[in-house]
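To: structure subgroup
Subject: Chain for Friday's discussion

All,

I'm putting the inputs and outputs inline so they're searchable in the archive.
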Amino acid sequence: MTAFVDAHRQEYGVEPICRLLEIAPSAYHERVRKRREPQCRSAREQRDDVLKPEILRVFNENFEVYGVRKIWRQMRREGFSVARCTIERLMRDLGLQGVIRGKPKRTTVSDKSAPCPLDRVNRQFKAPAPNRLWVSDFTYVATWAGFVYVAFCLLARVAAEKQRAFLARLDDRQKHLDVLSEMIPVVNIGQGVATDFEVGGLGYGNRTVDWLVGPIDGREILMDVKRRSIDLIRQLDQLNEGQTAPEPDHNPAVLFRSVESKLVDSDPASRLQGVWVVTDIRQEGSALADAFKNLNPAKVHFAILGDWERDVHILVRREDDRAFLLDVFSLQQSARFTFQRA
């Protein structure tokens, strides 16, 4: 994005371009300043510059076959104090990938002679109203038992101008599950209820929030969606491999991480704000309630723990909001996501 502004700033100016791209001019100028003065960058960015050449060196010295785990272990042997997730992130940035045992799985073998299904919407995935257009996706998930093939059918609630970015993220292997999780809250919303995806202008700074629902009886619902199983799973993976890692302690506060920083103060009578957490991990009930209470009550009015099923656990500031949310999203209250400490 910075390169695009650089290429056209002489002709159009920085602020008009940023306004069109919906980015803050200050964000662009900050990136330019960091590029001009590298010492002003964050400690993480500066450390990344040190680690990337070392990762590339280890990768090349080992015939370009090492993956994340082996490069991480080799660098630890050489005295680098670095987390495995950091190696994974930097290898992804460098476009490096280790060799995988076995033959690659071919998931699609096209037959050019076979007739293709008709494109009945002429690639225009924009619906005038709910339940007029559905989008299907056939994908696969690698499991210990082999590949599981899954068909998804999603209601087309993503505006036409945002669909290209949505489909690009859906095609990204690293973001695929996150994108699917973002669709969970809206699949059961009734006809006639407006939804807007990746909403800008209502969050803090230039950050977008996943869903704006309504208005319904004069109230809007602004909600971010978080998939929060991965934090604990990474800890368990490290322990399973005999690596040094803290004992897994899934602090419920992790579920709500980064939510407050996105939202601004709002009157819940006109705009109800909160988070939908997609998780498979049960939470200790009182600790979960305490974590929710510690959030800014002017910014976060509710939190929902749920998955693809319709039973969820809802935390609210006002009991009247619980019934309202259950009705809008066609949900029912459940104890499936919590347990009580003995």
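Points worth raising on Friday:
The first strand starts at residue 134 and ends at 143.
The chain has a mean pLDDT of 80.

D.
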